[in-house]
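quick one
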Amino acid sequence: MQVLEIYQSKQGEGLWTGKYSVFVRMLGCPLRCRYCDTPYARSDSFDPENSSIGADLSPDELAGRVLLLELPHVVLTGGEPMLSPEIVELTKLLKDFDNVITIETSGIIDRPVICDLMSISPKLRNALPPNASLQEYSRPDIVQQLILRYEYQLKFVADTPDDLPEIAEYLTQLQGVRADRVLIMPQAVDTETMHRKSDWIIPFCEEHGYRYCPRMQIVWYGNKRRT
Ligand code: SF4
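structure w/ iron/sulfur cluster:
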């Protein structure tokens, strides 16, 4: 498995905000979101200029490195962690040692992983680079399968108030979504922008029973890698 970095930090987003966790950042992603905050994790192979600690590890080796850090919560992120079929074996190994597993995914790939929280970030039009199609970036059919099988949160990234009707429209394509598992996160890499956008996101959340989802890692650490 192509792993870019393994580090400890506090979870900054979503239902488990504040949990100290081991973060495993996988390399590679089939998407090219306009607002991507981890472009260094999208390449198809290691770049020695940008990834000094990347490694190609078997699921066994990777689980061993995670266990050395002795934290129960593990966040598999990327890039797109569901890209590698070996994630299935990795999650089995981690669960054998009672790890609590979060997978941070765009929801365009389904695999029979073991997972305590499937953290899905469905893409809206605001993510699309020029000439990309929404069908390529957004797979509500796959998201539906994931939310039927796992504990989940749906994390939407809102850039402008125009994104809110699109979120509501997206959700009409899914069955049985719990409103309190719908999280709206401001597209922001600094606290000032985040607070400004909260002015229109919070009333929308209150109206529909959704949750406002600040990016607390930016509040705690600034816009820094490995946080
Ligand atoms: S899915 Fe995530 S890692 Fe991939 S391009 Fe989009 S924001 Fe970046």
